Amino acid sequence: MVRVMACWGTLMALFMGELAIATTGFGPGICAVAVLMGLVIVFGFMRITLAPPLAAIFALGSLFWLAILLSLGSLDSFTRTNFSVGDTLSSRTQNAVTARDRAP
Protein backbone atom coordinates (compact mmCIF):
# COMPACT_ATOMS: atom_id res chain seq x y z
CA MET A 1 0.00 0.00 0.00
CA VAL A 2 2.93 2.31 0.66
CA ARG A 3 4.13 1.91 -2.93
CA VAL A 4 0.70 2.81 -4.32
CA MET A 5 0.42 5.88 -2.09
CA ALA A 6 3.95 6.97 -3.04
CA CYS A 7 3.09 6.64 -6.73
CA TRP A 8 -0.15 8.56 -6.21
CA GLY A 9 1.68 11.33 -4.33
CA THR A 10 4.28 11.52 -7.09
CA LEU A 11 1.56 11.75 -9.73
CA MET A 12 -0.20 14.53 -7.80
CA ALA A 13 3.09 16.44 -7.46
CA LEU A 14 3.72 16.04 -11.18
CA PHE A 15 0.16 17.18 -11.89
CA MET A 16 0.70 20.34 -9.84
CA GLY A 17 3.95 20.91 -11.71
CA GLU A 18 2.13 20.44 -15.00
CA LEU A 19 -0.46 23.03 -14.00
CA ALA A 20 2.30 25.47 -13.05
CA ILE A 21 4.07 24.90 -16.38
CA ALA A 22 0.77 25.29 -18.26
CA THR A 23 0.30 28.79 -16.87
CA THR A 24 3.66 29.80 -18.35
CA GLY A 25 2.84 28.28 -21.75
CA PHE A 26 6.03 26.19 -21.99
CA GLY A 27 4.94 23.32 -24.28
CA PRO A 28 8.02 21.06 -24.08
CA GLY A 29 7.85 21.16 -20.29
CA ILE A 30 4.30 19.85 -20.34
CA CYS A 31 5.37 17.00 -22.62
CA ALA A 32 8.28 16.16 -20.30
CA VAL A 33 5.97 16.03 -17.28
CA ALA A 34 3.54 13.81 -19.21
CA VAL A 35 6.35 11.38 -20.04
CA LEU A 36 7.39 11.33 -16.38
CA MET A 37 3.79 10.59 -15.37
CA GLY A 38 3.71 7.69 -17.81
CA LEU A 39 6.97 6.33 -16.43
CA VAL A 40 5.65 6.52 -12.87
CA ILE A 41 2.58 4.54 -13.93
CA VAL A 42 4.59 1.94 -15.85
CA PHE A 43 7.31 1.39 -13.25
CA GLY A 44 5.33 2.23 -10.10
CA PHE A 45 1.82 0.86 -10.54
CA MET A 46 2.43 -1.78 -13.19
CA ARG A 47 5.90 -2.83 -11.91
CA ILE A 48 6.84 -3.80 -15.43
CA THR A 49 10.40 -4.67 -14.38
CA LEU A 50 9.08 -7.51 -12.19
CA ALA A 51 6.58 -8.75 -14.79
CA PRO A 52 7.17 -11.71 -17.10
CA PRO A 53 8.78 -10.90 -20.46
CA LEU A 54 5.49 -11.44 -22.28
CA ALA A 55 3.88 -8.66 -20.24
CA ALA A 56 6.71 -6.30 -21.19
CA ILE A 57 6.24 -7.21 -24.85
CA PHE A 58 2.53 -6.47 -24.62
CA ALA A 59 3.23 -3.16 -22.84
CA LEU A 60 5.59 -2.10 -25.64
CA GLY A 61 3.12 -3.30 -28.25
CA SER A 62 0.35 -1.26 -26.68
CA LEU A 63 2.55 1.85 -26.74
CA PHE A 64 3.26 1.22 -30.41
CA TRP A 65 -0.47 0.82 -31.13
CA LEU A 66 -1.24 4.00 -29.18
CA ALA A 67 1.33 5.86 -31.28
CA ILE A 68 -0.33 4.59 -34.46
CA LEU A 69 -3.80 5.64 -33.28
CA LEU A 70 -2.65 9.10 -32.18
CA SER A 71 -0.79 9.73 -35.42
CA LEU A 72 -3.75 8.65 -37.55
CA GLY A 73 -6.10 10.73 -35.44
CA SER A 74 -3.95 13.83 -35.81
CA LEU A 75 -3.76 13.46 -39.60
CA ASP A 76 -7.30 14.78 -39.89
CA SER A 77 -6.52 18.11 -38.30
CA PHE A 78 -3.13 18.41 -40.01
CA THR A 79 -4.48 17.83 -43.52
CA ARG A 80 -7.84 19.59 -43.27
CA THR A 81 -8.28 22.55 -45.61
CA ASN A 82 -10.49 25.41 -44.56
CA PHE A 83 -12.26 27.26 -47.32
CA SER A 84 -13.29 30.78 -46.50
CA VAL A 85 -17.00 31.21 -47.05
CA GLY A 86 -18.47 34.52 -46.18
CA ASP A 87 -18.84 37.94 -47.72
CA THR A 88 -17.74 37.01 -51.23
CA LEU A 89 -20.42 34.40 -51.83
CA SER A 90 -23.19 36.23 -50.05
CA SER A 91 -22.46 39.52 -51.80
CA ARG A 92 -22.65 37.84 -55.21
CA THR A 93 -26.01 36.37 -54.34
CA GLN A 94 -27.33 39.68 -53.10
CA ASN A 95 -26.08 41.51 -56.20
CA ALA A 96 -27.73 38.96 -58.49
CA VAL A 97 -31.05 39.34 -56.72
CA THR A 98 -30.97 43.13 -56.83
CA ALA A 99 -30.04 43.15 -60.56
CA ARG A 100 -32.94 40.82 -61.34
CA ASP A 101 -35.35 42.96 -59.35
CA ARG A 102 -34.36 46.08 -61.33
CA ALA A 103 -35.11 44.55 -64.72
CA PRO A 104 -38.43 45.70 -66.26
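That was protein one. Protein two is written in the same sequence-then-structure order:
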Amino acid sequence: MCQILTPAFAWVTTYSPVILEPLPLNLSFGGAMSNQPDNDDILWGIHPILELLRLQPKKVREVVIQQGKGGAKIQEIITLAQEQGVKFRFLPSQRFPSSPEKTHQGVLAKTAPVATCSLHELLKKAGETEQPLIVALDSIQDPHNLGAIIRTAAAAGATGIILPKDRSAPLNATAAKAAAGAMAHMKLCLVTNLVTTLQTIKEKSFWVYGAAGEAKRTVYGTKFSGAVCLVIGGEDKGMRPLVREQCDELVSIPMAGSLNSLNASVAAGIILFEIVRQRQDDR
Protein backbone atom coordinates (compact mmCIF):
# COMPACT_ATOMS: atom_id res chain seq x y z
CA MET A 1 0.00 0.00 0.00
CA CYS A 2 1.40 3.40 -0.96
CA GLN A 3 -0.39 6.67 -0.38
CA ILE A 4 1.20 10.06 -0.96
CA LEU A 5 -0.10 12.51 1.59
CA THR A 6 1.88 15.57 0.60
CA PRO A 7 4.47 16.35 -2.06
CA ALA A 8 7.11 16.13 0.67
CA PHE A 9 6.89 12.55 1.84
CA ALA A 10 4.87 9.40 2.22
CA TRP A 11 4.79 6.45 4.58
CA VAL A 12 4.72 3.08 2.87
CA THR A 13 3.82 -0.05 4.78
CA THR A 14 1.77 -3.18 4.38
CA TYR A 15 1.06 -3.54 8.09
CA SER A 16 0.31 -0.17 9.62
CA PRO A 17 -1.79 2.87 8.72
CA VAL A 18 -0.31 5.87 7.01
CA ILE A 19 1.24 8.23 9.54
CA LEU A 20 1.90 11.89 8.82
CA GLU A 21 5.21 12.71 10.50
CA PRO A 22 8.12 14.44 8.78
CA LEU A 23 11.62 13.13 9.30
CA PRO A 24 13.60 15.40 11.63
CA LEU A 25 16.58 16.90 9.88
CA ASN A 26 18.69 17.20 13.03
CA LEU A 27 19.39 13.48 13.22
CA SER A 28 21.63 12.35 16.06
CA PHE A 29 24.70 10.30 15.29
CA GLY A 30 26.16 9.82 18.75
CA GLY A 31 28.80 11.93 20.43
CA ALA A 32 32.46 11.59 19.56
CA MET A 33 34.68 9.54 21.83
CA SER A 34 31.82 7.75 23.55
CA ASN A 35 29.93 4.52 23.09
CA GLN A 36 26.97 5.51 25.22
CA PRO A 37 24.03 4.72 22.90
CA ASP A 38 21.49 7.23 21.61
CA ASN A 39 17.77 6.46 21.72
CA ASP A 40 17.96 5.89 17.97
CA ASP A 41 20.84 5.29 15.59
CA ILE A 42 20.97 6.16 11.91
CA LEU A 43 22.36 3.66 9.41
CA TRP A 44 23.36 4.87 5.95
CA GLY A 45 23.95 2.94 2.75
CA ILE A 46 22.40 0.10 0.79
CA HIS A 47 24.45 -2.88 1.94
CA PRO A 48 24.39 -2.22 5.72
CA ILE A 49 20.62 -1.69 5.60
CA LEU A 50 20.04 -4.81 3.51
CA GLU A 51 22.10 -6.88 5.93
CA LEU A 52 20.21 -5.58 8.94
CA LEU A 53 16.82 -6.18 7.29
CA ARG A 54 17.87 -9.74 6.49
CA LEU A 55 19.32 -10.65 9.87
CA GLN A 56 17.75 -8.38 12.48
CA PRO A 57 14.66 -6.72 10.98
CA LYS A 58 13.16 -5.96 14.39
CA LYS A 59 15.97 -3.48 14.96
CA VAL A 60 14.89 -1.38 11.97
CA ARG A 61 12.36 1.25 12.99
CA GLU A 62 11.96 2.89 9.59
CA VAL A 63 13.63 3.19 6.21
CA VAL A 64 13.83 6.47 4.29
CA ILE A 65 14.64 6.52 0.57
CA GLN A 66 15.56 9.53 -1.51
CA GLN A 67 13.07 10.05 -4.32
CA GLY A 68 14.52 9.19 -7.70
CA LYS A 69 16.76 6.45 -6.33
CA GLY A 70 16.12 3.07 -7.90
CA GLY A 71 17.75 -0.14 -8.98
CA ALA A 72 17.63 -3.76 -7.89
CA LYS A 73 19.13 -3.17 -4.44
CA ILE A 74 16.76 -0.34 -3.56
CA GLN A 75 13.86 -2.52 -4.69
CA GLU A 76 15.20 -5.34 -2.51
CA ILE A 77 15.21 -2.98 0.49
CA ILE A 78 11.60 -2.04 -0.23
CA THR A 79 10.57 -5.68 -0.63
CA LEU A 80 12.29 -6.76 2.59
CA ALA A 81 10.77 -3.85 4.49
CA GLN A 82 7.30 -4.81 3.27
CA GLU A 83 7.83 -8.48 4.15
CA GLN A 84 9.09 -7.63 7.63
CA GLY A 85 6.45 -4.99 8.36
CA VAL A 86 9.01 -2.20 8.52
CA LYS A 87 7.71 1.29 7.75
CA PHE A 88 9.42 3.15 4.94
CA ARG A 89 8.92 6.37 3.04
CA PHE A 90 10.34 8.55 0.28
CA LEU A 91 11.72 12.08 0.60
CA PRO A 92 12.62 14.46 -2.22
CA SER A 93 16.31 15.27 -2.60
CA GLN A 94 16.02 18.73 -1.04
CA ARG A 95 14.50 17.25 2.12
CA PHE A 96 16.69 14.18 2.40
CA PRO A 97 18.89 14.57 5.50
CA SER A 98 22.57 15.30 5.10
CA SER A 99 24.92 12.47 5.91
CA PRO A 100 28.32 12.38 7.63
CA GLU A 101 29.27 10.11 4.74
CA LYS A 102 30.24 11.41 1.31
CA THR A 103 28.13 8.69 -0.32
CA HIS A 104 24.91 7.80 1.49
CA GLN A 105 23.46 6.08 -1.61
CA GLY A 106 20.12 7.76 -1.06
CA VAL A 107 18.86 5.51 1.70
CA LEU A 108 18.94 5.55 5.50
CA ALA A 109 17.42 3.47 8.25
CA LYS A 110 16.45 4.64 11.70
CA THR A 111 17.38 1.75 13.98
CA ALA A 112 17.45 0.69 17.58
CA PRO A 113 20.83 1.32 19.21
CA VAL A 114 23.57 -1.16 18.31
CA ALA A 115 23.16 -4.30 20.38
CA THR A 116 26.00 -4.97 22.81
CA CYS A 117 26.67 -7.84 25.18
CA SER A 118 28.36 -8.45 28.50
CA LEU A 119 31.81 -9.98 28.80
CA HIS A 120 30.19 -13.09 30.27
CA GLU A 121 27.97 -13.45 27.20
CA LEU A 122 30.91 -12.95 24.85
CA LEU A 123 33.07 -15.54 26.61
CA LYS A 124 30.19 -18.00 26.71
CA LYS A 125 29.69 -17.64 22.95
CA ALA A 126 33.42 -17.90 22.31
CA GLY A 127 33.51 -21.09 24.36
CA GLU A 128 31.22 -22.75 21.82
CA THR A 129 34.01 -22.70 19.21
CA GLU A 130 36.99 -25.03 19.01
CA GLN A 131 39.56 -22.24 18.78
CA PRO A 132 38.02 -19.01 20.08
CA LEU A 133 39.16 -15.71 18.62
CA ILE A 134 38.36 -12.32 20.16
CA VAL A 135 39.61 -8.87 19.16
CA ALA A 136 40.13 -6.15 21.78
CA LEU A 137 40.53 -2.53 20.67
CA ASP A 138 42.40 0.05 22.71
CA SER A 139 41.81 3.74 21.93
CA ILE A 140 40.72 3.36 18.31
CA GLN A 141 39.63 6.90 17.44
CA ASP A 142 38.43 6.70 13.85
CA PRO A 143 34.94 5.19 13.32
CA HIS A 144 35.97 4.18 9.78
CA ASN A 145 38.78 2.10 11.28
CA LEU A 146 36.43 0.70 13.90
CA GLY A 147 33.92 -0.40 11.28
CA ALA A 148 36.62 -1.85 9.03
CA ILE A 149 38.07 -3.87 11.92
CA ILE A 150 34.63 -5.21 12.83
CA ARG A 151 34.09 -6.28 9.22
CA THR A 152 37.52 -7.92 8.99
CA ALA A 153 37.10 -9.68 12.34
CA ALA A 154 33.75 -11.09 11.23
CA ALA A 155 35.31 -12.37 8.00
CA ALA A 156 38.13 -13.97 10.01
CA GLY A 157 35.65 -15.86 12.17
CA ALA A 158 36.14 -13.90 15.38
CA THR A 159 33.39 -14.27 17.96
CA GLY A 160 33.35 -10.65 18.97
CA ILE A 161 34.96 -7.29 19.59
CA ILE A 162 35.81 -5.77 22.96
CA LEU A 163 36.09 -2.00 23.17
CA PRO A 164 36.03 0.60 25.94
CA LYS A 165 32.90 2.61 26.64
CA ASP A 166 35.07 5.72 26.67
CA ARG A 167 38.22 6.74 24.77
CA SER A 168 36.97 4.93 21.70
CA ALA A 169 35.32 5.75 18.41
CA PRO A 170 31.55 5.44 18.80
CA LEU A 171 29.49 2.63 17.34
CA ASN A 172 27.75 5.14 15.11
CA ALA A 173 26.49 5.40 11.54
CA THR A 174 29.98 5.88 10.12
CA ALA A 175 31.29 2.75 11.83
CA ALA A 176 28.21 0.78 10.81
CA LYS A 177 28.58 1.75 7.16
CA ALA A 178 32.28 0.85 7.18
CA ALA A 179 31.37 -2.50 8.75
CA ALA A 180 28.99 -3.11 5.80
CA GLY A 181 26.54 -5.17 7.83
CA ALA A 182 29.13 -7.06 9.89
CA MET A 183 27.82 -5.65 13.19
CA ALA A 184 24.85 -7.97 12.84
CA HIS A 185 27.25 -10.95 12.80
CA MET A 186 29.43 -10.00 15.77
CA LYS A 187 29.21 -9.86 19.53
CA LEU A 188 30.11 -6.31 20.54
CA CYS A 189 31.20 -5.97 24.15
CA LEU A 190 31.60 -2.56 25.78
CA VAL A 191 33.75 -2.54 28.91
CA THR A 192 34.56 0.07 31.53
CA ASN A 193 38.14 -1.07 32.14
CA LEU A 194 40.04 -2.85 29.37
CA VAL A 195 42.92 -3.82 31.68
CA THR A 196 40.74 -5.78 34.11
CA THR A 197 38.84 -7.24 31.15
CA LEU A 198 42.05 -8.66 29.71
CA GLN A 199 42.91 -10.09 33.13
CA THR A 200 39.56 -11.87 33.18
CA ILE A 201 40.08 -13.18 29.65
CA LYS A 202 43.46 -14.63 30.58
CA GLU A 203 41.86 -16.41 33.52
CA LYS A 204 39.65 -18.14 30.93
CA SER A 205 42.76 -19.59 29.22
CA PHE A 206 43.01 -17.03 26.43
CA TRP A 207 46.48 -16.06 25.25
CA VAL A 208 46.60 -12.31 24.70
CA TYR A 209 48.63 -10.99 21.77
CA GLY A 210 49.27 -7.29 21.31
CA ALA A 211 50.15 -5.67 17.98
CA ALA A 212 53.28 -3.54 18.48
CA GLY A 213 55.53 -2.21 15.74
CA GLU A 214 58.70 -2.57 17.82
CA ALA A 215 58.09 -6.20 18.84
CA LYS A 216 60.97 -8.51 17.88
CA ARG A 217 58.71 -11.48 17.15
CA THR A 218 56.74 -11.10 13.93
CA VAL A 219 53.26 -12.46 13.23
CA TYR A 220 54.84 -14.92 10.78
CA GLY A 221 57.11 -16.32 13.46
CA THR A 222 54.31 -16.70 15.99
CA LYS A 223 52.14 -19.75 16.48
CA PHE A 224 48.57 -18.62 17.18
CA SER A 225 47.07 -21.69 18.78
CA GLY A 226 44.26 -22.25 21.25
CA ALA A 227 42.06 -19.41 22.47
CA VAL A 228 43.39 -16.10 21.12
CA CYS A 229 42.66 -12.50 22.04
CA LEU A 230 44.27 -9.98 19.70
CA VAL A 231 44.72 -6.42 20.99
CA ILE A 232 44.94 -3.59 18.45
CA GLY A 233 46.02 -0.19 19.73
CA GLY A 234 45.07 3.31 18.65
CA GLU A 235 46.12 4.93 15.39
CA ASP A 236 48.56 7.41 16.95
CA LYS A 237 50.11 5.90 20.08
CA GLY A 238 49.20 2.23 19.89
CA MET A 239 48.29 0.41 23.08
CA ARG A 240 48.35 2.24 26.39
CA PRO A 241 51.12 1.06 28.76
CA LEU A 242 48.80 -0.71 31.22
CA VAL A 243 47.05 -2.52 28.38
CA ARG A 244 50.39 -3.50 26.88
CA GLU A 245 51.44 -5.02 30.22
CA GLN A 246 48.49 -7.41 30.07
CA CYS A 247 49.62 -8.90 26.76
CA ASP A 248 51.23 -12.31 27.02
CA GLU A 249 53.13 -11.64 23.82
CA LEU A 250 53.76 -8.69 21.50
CA VAL A 251 53.92 -9.26 17.75
CA SER A 252 54.90 -7.04 14.83
CA ILE A 253 54.30 -6.96 11.09
CA PRO A 254 57.57 -6.84 9.11
CA MET A 255 57.93 -3.78 6.88
CA ALA A 256 59.80 -3.67 3.58
CA GLY A 257 59.41 0.02 2.76
CA SER A 258 60.39 3.30 4.36
CA LEU A 259 57.24 3.56 6.50
CA ASN A 260 57.25 1.87 9.89
CA SER A 261 53.54 1.73 10.72
CA LEU A 262 50.21 0.70 9.24
CA ASN A 263 46.63 1.86 9.55
CA ALA A 264 45.02 0.09 12.52
CA SER A 265 42.43 -1.70 10.41
CA VAL A 266 45.05 -2.85 7.91
CA ALA A 267 47.27 -4.17 10.71
CA ALA A 268 44.30 -5.99 12.24
CA GLY A 269 43.49 -7.57 8.89
CA ILE A 270 47.04 -8.83 8.31
CA ILE A 271 47.29 -10.43 11.76
CA LEU A 272 43.76 -11.86 11.77
CA PHE A 273 44.20 -13.56 8.44
CA GLU A 274 47.59 -14.93 9.43
CA ILE A 275 45.70 -16.56 12.30
CA VAL A 276 43.12 -17.86 9.80
CA ARG A 277 45.88 -19.21 7.52
CA GLN A 278 47.60 -21.04 10.36
CA ARG A 279 44.38 -22.60 11.59
CA GLN A 280 43.41 -23.76 8.12
CA ASP A 281 46.87 -25.28 7.58
CA ASP A 282 46.55 -27.18 10.86
CA ARG A 283 43.36 -28.94 9.76
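Residues 119-281 form a domain with the Alpha/beta knot fold (CATH 3.40.1280.10). Keep this in mind for the problem set.
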